[in-house]
Amino acid sequence: MPVGVDDRGDLQIPTDVHTVGWYRYGAPPGAARGSIVLAGHVDAASQGIGAFRALWSATPGMVVRLDLGSGSVMTYRVVAREHFDKRAVPLTALFAVTGAPRLTLITCGGPFDQQTLSYTDNVVVTAVPT
After folding, report:
1. Pick from 38, 20, 40, 39: nearest CA to 30
2. Which of 69, 91, 113, 119 is the right S-S partner for 108, CB 3.0 to 4.6 Å?
3. Which domains does the chain show, CATH number per domain?
4. For residue 127, pLDDT beyond 90
5. DSSP-assigned letters across all residues of 28-44
6. What is the 3-state secondary structure (H, E, C) of 84-126?
7. Is residue 23 within 8 Å of residue 11, measured between CB atoms?
8. How far apart are CA 88 and CA 9, in angstroms?
9. What's the pTM value of the predicted model, to 2 decimals?
10. Are the C-beta atoms of residues 13 and 4 closer than 8 Å to each other?
11. pLDDT tens digits for range 17-67
């Protein structure tokens, strides 16, 4: 589902842990240039395991299939998995609408902070078209 930014300027993420959001102000799915950004949950206490839990174990060479909803499927190969403190995510690089086409998948990771009820990091998986 298309997502934007919330009132704090943070990337919106669908409330349903089984739904993935596409950053609608970035490159659209299937774009020939720039970063197609998808964001989703790793889990939620009330809903269980989320759509992006598998990102925690993604490794270079793995295949990701992106269903465009029109019957078309794009195939990508993972080239990197990185962890960033949520306050240090390189937003300009991840959300670029120029440059080589790539798929950027973002979810939570790192330790779980019981005070904020949130993970401290973001896991970012980058994949390129095959």
Report:
1. 38
2. 119
3. 2-129 (2.40.260.10)
4. yes
5. PTT-SSSEEEEE--SEE
6. EEHHHCCHHHHCCCCCCCEEEEEEEEEEEECCCCEEEEEEEEE
7. yes
8. 15
9. 0.92
10. no
11. 999 999 999 999 888 999 999 999 999 999 999 999 999 999 999 999 998
